[in-house]
Amino acid sequence: MADIDVKLAQWKLVEVGRVVLIRRGPFTGKLATIVEIVDHKRVLVDGPSTEEAKIVPRHVLPLSHATLTHFVIPKLPRAAGTGPVKKLWAQNEIDGKWAKSTISQKTDNNNRRKNLTDFERFKVLRLRKQVCYDIASGGMNE
């Protein structure tokens, strides 16, 4: 027999403790963790964020409304109450890890760009032209 190395796929599995980003509904853009799997299309989620504005109450969420992230809360018992979930959430620093992720940073940048005023968009245009001019002139404009 040949020696075969079996490696686990780097898939994001639907599992208890997996952190999800909610894409639709009243909690759009907020994080929650899977507490229990209801069936193959729905999960029970709870989002005890440390920030008051980002808290997601425990509810059943269709998987089509969620995006799985790479973050997992290890050793989260099935159907754990909000107290243990909140404790493990803070212990694993999920909010801090999320803030450092590229998805979060891109979302923040997109939101900031969407909320620019007319004058701020004009300033961005002028700055981009200035950078383009500096590059084209080879830095001679200093």
From TrEMBL:
Record-linked Gene3D superfamilies: 2.30.30.30, 6.10.250.2270
Gene Ontology cellular component annotations, sorted alphabetically: cytosolic large ribosomal subunit
Protein name stated in the entry: KOW domain-containing protein
Domain of life: Eukaryota
Annotated localization: Cytoplasm
UniProt entry keywords in alphabetical sequence: Cytoplasm, Ribonucleoprotein, Ribosomal protein
SUPFAM superfamilies, alphabetized: Translation proteins SH3-like domain (SSF50104)
Biological processes, Gene Ontology terms: ribosomal large subunit biogenesis; translation
Organism classification: Eukaryota, Fungi, Dikarya, Ascomycota, Pezizomycotina
Stated role: Component of the ribosome, a large ribonucleoprotein complex responsible for the synthesis of proteins in the cell. The small ribosomal subunit (SSU) binds messenger RNAs (mRNAs) and translates the encoded message by selecting cognate aminoacyl-transfer RNA (tRNA) molecules. The large subunit (LSU) contains the ribosomal catalytic site termed the peptidyl transferase center (PTC), which catalyzes the formation of peptide bonds, thereby polymerizing the amino acids delivered by tRNAs into a polypeptide chain.
Principal subcellular localization: cytoplasm
One Pfam match: KOW
Domain KOW stretches: 13-40
Species the sequence originates in: Aspergillus versicolor CBS 583.65
GO terms of molecular function: RNA binding; structural constituent of ribosome
Family: Belongs to the eukaryotic ribosomal protein eL14 family.
PANTHER family membership: 60S RIBOSOMAL PROTEIN L14, LARGE RIBOSOMAL SUBUNIT PROTEIN EL14
